[in-house]
Amino acid sequence: MEKSSRRRGLRAAPMGAEGWCLLLCVALSQAADTAEKQWQAVDVVLDCFLAEEGKHHGGFASRKDMVRALLVLRQVPVLDDGSLEGFADFQLSTLAKDSPPVTFEASVNLVQIPHAEALLHADCSETEVTCEISRYFPQARQEATVETAAWFITNMQVSGGGPSVSIVMRTLRDPENVAVLHPTVHLPQSPQGTVLTAVELQVSTDTPSLNFLLGSSASLRCNFSMAPGLDLTRVEWRLQHRGNGQLVYSWTTGQGQAKREGATLEPEHLLMAGDASLNLPSLTLKDEGAYICQVTTSLYQAQQIIQLHIQASPKVRLHLANEALPPTLICNIVGYYPLDVTVTWTREELGGAPTPVSDASFSSLRESPGGTYSISSSLTAEPGSAGAAYTCQVTHVSLDKPIEARAWVAPPEQRTSASGILFASSLFLLALLYLGLQRWKATSPKVTQDCKALLVTSPLPQSKKKE
């Protein structure tokens, strides 16, 4: 898919897009921290691409032949900190006259548009908004509306892990200009040459990608808003991973069913208010994948995709496996996920600086029944005449900072001396054990005879005598 150009932002004639964005950035930087925040209705303008053909029920299309489009969300409530004062609404006169894009004017009076601040300030935040518009075909519609209306779905995604919003728009016929059709979409257009629409459903998430540790609990956020007159009929969460799909949770007209043990939706009153978030306790590696939040109303259906990544932090242990010459160090890295891990070695003499060591070897990769990985790295140590400290450093995506394990390797003469002392101590202990064993054998017959005599000569108690 072609990469969309950067979001245009608010516009005012005759100022160009670059000048307007610069003015907005300056205003944002100069806004007082103590300014009282309040809601202000502004126009959010997005550069988009229009897929002319294809039926889509949410998600970005993959059609190659797309045309430039412009989406103008009219009068969206935005929380203002004082930086929007004095900005004018978007003017259609600022569009190029020779090759204007297909322009959709969308009214948002019927639904809430979440994350409008992220869409509005994308340029100043050095992010981009990917925006794609495509034709949409409702699940059910009255025959009377077929000739008088058309539907479009727009998917907006803020780069860098920002929020994602999908909206379903219905075209509005201008009774004063019914005979004029737009040359590209062949639908009635306004006198200004735009396609008038109204947003009737939106489904959004502010967390399109999440990372959670193995064994923890996760909340996958999914929100929606629908126009009056529409009924919520179904909420469904599905998991796609490595080519396999499965149902996780489904809700239909007041009745929920969990296919994954422990999975829950938000309470009923929050669901009816537009919160379709999914809660997953005790995460395992089987929970990893792409989660699809699909919201179905009496007329429309839209969805969001949330990528859930499971991570497990490695445990690191460094030990001296062989003290004989040459000594061998082994660094065990156990229980990590995902697969990629980086292991580096450094050597440090007394009073010196750490230096990298590059001749380490690695064992074959091991996978546990639970799906986590383990590997070992071994290194032949060179302690020198004064000894050296070796450090095994492990870097993994689950760690805020690398894990380090450190071991001291003594010089050869110290290891020989220590080995001699250990050998002598072992011989001394063996000698003591031998002498103790011989003494026990020498005294054991006498002890047995004394016990037998005691049993024979000892009189029975009075209560035990025969009558």
Description:
The chain has 467 residues and is an alpha+beta fold. The chain is built from five helices and 26 strands. The chain has a seven-stranded mixed barrel with strand order 1-2-3-7-6-5-4. The chain has a six-stranded mixed sheet with strand order 8-17-16-11-12-13, with no helix packed on it. Strands 18, 19, 22, 23 and 24 form a five-stranded antiparallel sheet that branches. The longest helix is centred in the C-terminal third of the chain and has 46 residues. The chain is elongated, with a radius of gyration of 37 Å.
3D shape: elongated
- Helical run tally: 5
**Can you summarize the main beta sheet?**
7 strands, mixed, barrel
Helix/strand structural class:
alpha+beta
Percent helix, as a range, is 10-25%
- Average pLDDT, rounded to a whole number, is 81
Q: What attributes characterize this protein structure?
A:
467 residues; seven-stranded mixed beta barrel
Quick structural overview:
By secondary structure, the protein is an alpha+beta fold. The chain has helices spanning 17-30, 116-120, 143-146, 268-272, 412-457; strands spanning 38-51, 66-80, 102-107, 129-136, 151-158, 164-171, 195-205, 209-213, 218-220, 223-226, 232-241, 244-252, 255-258, 264-265, 278-280, 289-297, 301-311, 315-322, 328-336, 342-349, 355-357, 361-362, 366-367, 373-380, 388-395, 403-409.
